[in-house]
Specification:
This protein is an alpha+beta fold. Helix content is 32%, strand content 34%. It starts with a helix and ends in a 16-residue tail after the last helix.
């Protein structure tokens, strides 16, 4: 029998480990099967619930596993979307919808992915034309981001194009080759219609004049080796005229007056859905910087609606892009230590505090008679004390140290307040007597640790923290004359502003509370006779020290994502006209080695002439 005991013990151990919650390493070592996945548990739970629809435990498990499976699939979808694998992500969404058709997040991701797959073709077209037609490509990318905020590939392409154009003014649509050929003009005090006629002959552009344009108005222009586009813009701007693009080779010229602006200049509407910034703050900035004609705030959608000219809208787009950035965040690692040190020394002889003499009763009656007093003797007098008639020799020293540690961690956004409260609420009863009617009310007082932090994160990864700390303790309870109870408290406060780098620990200490107690007891007169007094009395010394130490370590979780330079530094026009296109002249690009075919013959539509368009050029 003794021979089979180890074998039986091993078998029992194997069965026990495979059936209970043993560590996975032991189960794998013993050949146990791995635990079922969430999908397997969900399938088993649904089968069990189908057999017994009234099983509450099975229904609860199905709901739990359904949520776990959905979260697992949605996490895979997010990873694939960030990697740009929309097709595989869409298959995972269909898998989730097959098991859970009512999942709202899956339905939204399905629509988003289908739209992104369609927009991916437009993004490829924008990438292909970014060098030849940068403004047209940028318009496509902005429209994609308007429909798909957070599209990583589109944001990367837009940043790349904006960095390329950061060294010059905002990109304008490429003109037809004839309008980008170098022209030289030298007119002095000539009728403006003659100058426009010369430009028309040289560049092949037609002009339609408003009836209020004074064709005999003298104008002067002297420009060498510039493009027809820049010459037209400069001539019109210096003579209080404006233009509107009719088609690729036709311009409408009208006076730059308010009534003509209202008649000819088209307005556009755009809704800016903000991801990070507060719509109220963005609206205030737009009113100060660009002053759009019509602007509306939608707090429900955190959006700003703007209606204005394309030139103003271009400025608004860049201002919004510069303000709608992710705010930095920091995790505050706080350690609060309260160190209590006690030192108590008690040395000497503890004598009785008093002596009491009494006459002992005689007989069974237990009473003292006059005869007892007359026959009083030494054996009939009793001696006692209030507590105990004894003498004790005290030689005791006590020392103790207590540490109370609180280590909360809290994540907070830049320039936002965060509060940490660790303790309890003590009820305080207040009694009120009004015309004989007594009422009681209960208020609660916070006792413990109250810590408030307000960080300010700089671009150099330094964190300035405004700290306010309060530590309070109960000192007991006191009953009032009316029967109520009040709680005396000791409170220590500290407020400061400290600066630390990312991961650097700052220490706030020195909040010390010291209590010293000295007491002595003994025989009167004899207990104060120097070193002999220790034989006739005792001394007690108590030292109690309490110190509060605060350790604060900031960990920056996310730094502020600064916008591109083209969104934070760009021309914005003049005092009377808001636009991102400066009034400059540029030398034409060098002619290609092989001349391109005319735009009309190629069958491809050429972009419009104006730099800021009321409608997209495609």
């Amino acid at each position: 029998m003794m021979t089979f005991k180890p074998v039986a013990l091993a078998v029992s151990l194997t069965v026990a480990l495979s059936g209970c919650a043993a560590p996975e390493s032991f189960k794998r070592a013993l050949g146990a099967s791995p635990p079922p996945t969430a999908s397997e548990r969900l399938a088993a739970g649904r089968a069990q619930l189908a057999n017994n629809p009234n099983d509450i435990e099975a229904g609860k498990n199905v709901v739990r596993d359904d949520i776990a499976v959905a979260r697992e699939i949605l996490q895979r979808v997010r990873v694939k979307m960030e990697a740009g694998d929309e097709q595989d992500a869409l298959q995972d969404v269909h898998e989730l919808l097959a098991t859970n058709p009512g999942n709202m997040r899956a339905q939204q991701l399905k629509a988003q992915l289908e739209q992104r797959i369609h927009l991916k073709e437009e993004l490829a077209e924008a990438a292909a034309m970014q060098h030849d037609r940068p403004a047209e490509a940028l318009y496509k990318v902005n429209r994609i981001l308007q429909e798909q905020p957070g599209y990583a590939q589109a944001e990367a392409l837009r940043s790349q194009m904006q960095r390329r154009d950061a060294g010059r003014h905002a990109a304008r649509p490429r003109l037809a080759d004839a309008l980008r050929k170098p022209v030289s003009l030298n007119f002095k005090s000539q009728p403006i219609v003659q100058i426009l006629d010369a430009i028309s002959l040289a560049a092949g552009v037609d002009f339609v004049l408003d009836p209020d344009v004074q064709t005999t108005m003298p104008a002067s222009i002297m420009a060498r080796q510039t493009t027809a586009e820049d010459a037209i813009n400069l001539l019109l701007r210096t003579n209080q005229l404006e233009k509107k693009v009719l088609d690729q080779h036709s311009l409408l010229i009208y006076p730059a007056r308010a009534d003509k602006e209202k008649e000819y200049r088209e307005l556009m509407v755009r809704v800016f859905y903000l991801n990070q910034a507060n719509a109220t703050h963005v609206l205030a900035a737009l009113r100060q910087i660009s002053a759009p004609k019509n602007v509306h705030l939608d707090e429900r959608a955190n959006a700003v609606l703007v209606r204005d000219t394309p030139e103003v809208m271009a400025v608004v787009e860049r201002v919004v892009a510069a303000l709608d950035i992710a705010q930095s965040e920091v995790t505050m690692d706080v350690q609060v230590l309260e160190v209590n040190a006690n030192d108590e020394l008690e040395v000497g002889v503890d004598y009785p505090s008093d002596l009491r003499f009494s006459i002992l009763p005689q007989g069974e009656s237990g009473r003292v008679t006059v005869g007892d007093l007359l026959n009083l003797s030494q054996g009939k007098i009793g001696v006692g004390s209030r507590n105990d008639l004894s003498v004790a020799l005290n030689m005791l020293q006590k020392r103790g140290k207590t540490k109370v540690l609180a280590n909360p961690k809290i994540r907070v956004r830049n320039m936002e307040k965060a509060s940490i409260k660790i303790g309890e609420k003590v009820p305080v009863v207040t009694t009120t007597n009004a015309n004989g009617v007594v009422t009681e009310s209960v208020n609660y007082q916070d006792v413990g640790l109250i810590l408030q932090v307000e960080p300010r994160i700089s671009l150099s990864n330094e964190v300035s923290v405004k700290v306010s700390m309060e530590v309070s303790n109960l000192k007991g309870e006191v009953k009032t004359a009316g029967g109520g109870i009040v709680y005396p408290m000791s409170t220590r406060n500290a407020e400061t502003v400290m600066t630390a780098r990312d991961g650097e620990t700052q220490v706030l200490a020195g909040l010390v509370n010291q209590q010293q107690t000295r007491s002595s007891s003994g025989l009167p007169g004899l207990s104060v006779m120097g070193w002999l007094g220790s034989l006739f009395g005792g001394q007690k010394k108590t030292d109690q020290t309490t110190e509060i130490v605060l350790l604060l370590t900031p960990h920056i979780e996310r730094s502020m994502a600064l916008p591109s330079a083209s969104d934070s530094y760009f021309p914005s026009g003049t005092e009377s006209r808001v636009t991102v296109v400066p009034m400059t002249t540029q030398a034409p690009a060098p002619a290609p080695a092989a001349p391109a075919a005319p735009a009309a013959a190629s069958g491809e539509a050429s972009p419009a002439l104006d730099a800021a368009l009321a409608k997209p050029p495609f």
